[in-house]
């Protein structure tokens, strides 16, 4: 505010950017918990989906399906963490990617 900026500009450009860094840090693990937790929710509530298919294939020992779904979930988690890391570059000016 000493620069003559309005309260809104100060909040959006300075305070919000700094406040979003810890939130972004938590988003990667939360996304992983949501993705892996969907398997249990789909099984309990009998919702057709990839999680229920995974649990059924584990019970039937369908190894190619187990490996494929594990690879798919792993790729989703890697992509989510990549998005979090790229978001750090936008939020924190000290972090530079070459």
UniProtKB/TrEMBL annotation:
Give the matching Pfam families: BPD_transp_1
**Transmembrane keyword on record:** yes
Major site of localization recorded for this protein: membrane
Q: SUPFAM superfamilies given for it?
A: MetI-like
InterPro entries from the xrefs?
Answer: MetI-like (IPR000515), MetI-like_sf (IPR035906)
Q: Which residue ranges does the record assign to the ABC transmembrane type-1 domain?
A: 1-84
- What's any GO biological process attached to this entry? transmembrane transport
Q: Which residues cross the membrane?
A: 20-45, 65-91
Q: How does it sit in the membrane?
A: Multi-pass membrane protein
Q: Which GO terms describe its cellular component?
A: plasma membrane
Known PROSITE patterns for this protein? ABC_TM1
- Subcellular localization(s) per the UniProt record: Cell membrane
What keywords would UniProt list here? Answer: Cell membrane, Membrane, Transmembrane, Transmembrane helix, Transport
**Name of this protein:** ABC transmembrane type-1 domain-containing protein
């Amino acid at each position: 505010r000493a620069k003559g900026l309005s309260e809104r500009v100060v909040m959006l450009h300075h305070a919000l950017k700094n406040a979003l860094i810890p939130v972004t840090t938590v988003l990667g693990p939360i996304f992983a918990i949501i993705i892996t937790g969907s398997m249990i929710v789909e099984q309990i509530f009998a919702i057709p989906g990839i999680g229920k298919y995974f649990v059924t294939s584990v019970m039937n020992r369908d190894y190619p399906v187990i490996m494929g779904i594990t690879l798919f979930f792993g790729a989703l988690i890697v992509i989510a963490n990549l998005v979090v890391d790229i978001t750090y570059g936008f939020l924190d000016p000290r972090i530079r990617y070459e």
